[in-house]
Write a structure and sequence with these properties.
Elements (H helix, E strand, L loop, with lengths): L4 E2 L27 H17 L18 E8 L7 E5 L1 E2 L6 H4 L5 E6 L2 E4 L1 E4 L2 E3 L11 E8 L2 E8 L5 E11 L5 E10 L5 E9 L5 E4 L18 E4 L14 E8 L2 H8 L22 E2 L1 E14 L4
Parallel strand pairs: 2-18
Antiparallel strand pairs: 1-4, 2-3, 3-8, 5-6, 5-9, 7-8, 9-10, 10-17, 11-12, 12-15, 13-14, 13-16, 16-18
């Protein structure tokens, strides 16, 4: 039977510490059908009054859909392991309700080295490890989530960033042909880890004053490539900051390799008329089992503009 799934949360990783996962995409019927539905409702009313003995109430639960766990988690080098989200998908006809989609009673654990930590539910479907448990670059983490008869999980390694080369402010041209200023960064990866950069500004004491909250793109060294370095570009620098390049720099984000495939395919989470399970394109999650979503590790470094 044809059916669609309402995905409760979608995963979007931003450079900021708080990495909200947007994802309230409902695979809903287009509003263009509303006039037709109105006509159909009138006809149905006539039929019911004409043939009262044929009235049949169809329970919404008779229309099957595939329930899955919805999981998002970001482990950042040096930070507490916290705010691992666990929820569930909902039928398309069910209005989105956080209190219904969030799962406060799941069993969530993370294993690193030979230790397994049980995560505690804090609020709104978010789970956290003990405050003393910090994520570390170079370590591999295994997430396991169970709820009722559903089990899902993923494995991620927090990558150690490669060598960061020169950082420049350069001229570029946007889609409209306008000349803009962007940050250019050269990176020498250790392996197949994924990189993204942002522009940022520093205070006189070296603290981050402001930082862009979006990536221009992500990149990695592809298999069998002869390239040993990557050149990455930020989004446009806010014009008010370009007059004083000495305070500018780059935020360099290094992700587990699976983030590359997710980032390149996440646009496929848009409305689709495909039968569930047969979309024209699909987001490449790294959650395995009875779930969807991303559990990913990343590390961050910053560097000021290179003197020219």
């Amino acid at each position: 039977m044809i059916f669609r799934v309402f995905v409760a949360y979608f995963i979007e990783f931003f450079p900021s510490t708080i990495y909200r996962v947007g994802l309230k995409e409902a695979y809903r019927t287009s509003s263009r059908l509303l006039p037709r539905l109105g006509i159909a409702a009138v006809l149905l009313t006539v039929v019911l009054f004409t043939f009262p003995g044929c009235e049949q109430v169809v329970d919404e639960e008779q229309f099957p859909y595939e329930m899955k766990l919805v999981i998002r988690g970001l482990l950042e080098d040096g930070s507490q392991i916290k705010d691992i989200y666990v929820g569930r998908t909902l039928p398309v006809a069910v209005p989105f309700r956080p209190d219904f989609s969030n799962l406060p009673d799941a069993v969530v654990s993370i294993k690193v080295d030979s230790l397994r930590y049980i995560l505690r539910h804090t609020k709104d479907g978010l789970y956290s490890a003990p405050a003393t448990v910090k994520a570390k670059a170079g370590k591999t983490y295994e997430l396991t989530v169970s709820w009722e008869n559903l089990t899902a999980g993923a494995v991620t390694t927090i990558p150690e960033p490669g060598e960061i080369g020169a950082v420049y402010m350069i001229n570029s041209v946007n889609d409209t042909g306008k000349t803009i200023k962007v940050i250019s960064v050269e990176v020498f990866p250790r392996g197949t880890e994924t990189y993204a950069v942002t522009w940022l500004s520093f205070t006189q004491t070296g603290q981050i004053y402001t930082e862009d909250d979006k990536y221009n793109t992500v990149a990695r060294v592809l298999p069998n490539s002869n390239t040993s370095s990557l050149i990455l570009f930020s989004n446009e620098i806010a014009p008010s900051y370009t007059t004083n390049p000495n305070v500018l720099g780059a935020g360099i984000y290094c992700y587990d390799p699976t983030f590359y495939d997710y980032y390149k395919t996440k646009g496929s989470g848009k409305l689709s008329d495909a039968v569930f399970g047969q979309p024209s394109t699909s987001v490449k999650w790294n959650i395995q089992g009875n779930g969807i979503g991303m559990f990913i590790g990343r590390s961050k470094t910053t560097k000021k503009i290179t003197s020219q």
